[in-house]
Structures are given as structure tokens and as C-alpha cells.
Model the fold of this input.
Amino acid sequence: MGFALSDMTLTSSGFDRGEPIPTKHTGEDEDVSPVLSWRGQPDGTRSIALICHDPDAPLVKPGGTYGFVHWVLYGIPGSIAELPEGVGDYIQGINDFGKPGYGGPMPPEGHGTHHYFFWLLALDADPELEPGLTMWELLEKIEPNVIAMNRLVGTYTRS
Done:
């Protein structure tokens, strides 16, 4: 499965690209998802999926996957271009905490700075997907329909 970055942009009013994610959006505080907005999705975008993944997490799983998945969200209509803080709408997948919805950064103490990749994927279809998919299950199902993608990377260091 290979993807190339597109001209779509993903931003947050809570943090800038490459900058620290506010504690409010982590497991050390309110643990609510940040505001996210995007633009530049291509014509023909029918739905959006969003994933937050920490590749710095020291985990390797069966099948060769790695890192820690913090959020899997899909079934977002293609006409939507912003998610509010703490969004509970749309279809929630299962994160690596074993729960649906957003689970914010919480790297092991003393593990240094982790990078959190918020991936935005534009699809040319609105597939009927069941709730509770993992990141890898979602990617397998939507891969033929991904027409654009990009990311916003934030950081977090647990004190």
C-alpha cells in the first residue's frame, strides 16, 4: 500500500506544524481531540478519513506494524472541512488503547519527544464501513479509493 502526499493541507488552531500539542489534548489532561481543518481536497472527494499515529512508540506488533494508533475516524462527508475540538461525530475506529475515539498523546515517561502524525485521507467514494475498524483494517478497505492525502505532525514530550 503506497500513498503520495497531495496539495491538501491540514492545520490545527491548537498547534502549528512540528510544534508541541497542548497538554489539553493529551492523556495527561482533558484528552480531547484538537480542532482540525483542511482545504484543497480534490474534486470528486466524497468522504474523508482521519488517523493519528505515533511512529515513535516503542511497539512492534504481529504482521510488522509499528508505533501506536491514537485515533481512527471515518465516514466524514467530503463537504466537511473542519472538526471541532472533542468531535464525537462520524464513525469511530478502535485506537491502540483498545477503545473507540480519540486517545491523546501519553508516551512513556522519560522516552523523549514523540511525533504525532494526523493523517487526512480524501476518498472518491463513501464506503459503508462498520464502526470499530483498526487503522490497518481501515487502510486496507479504503486504499483503492484514496485520491489525496496529507498530514499535520505535532510533538509531545511527557515530563
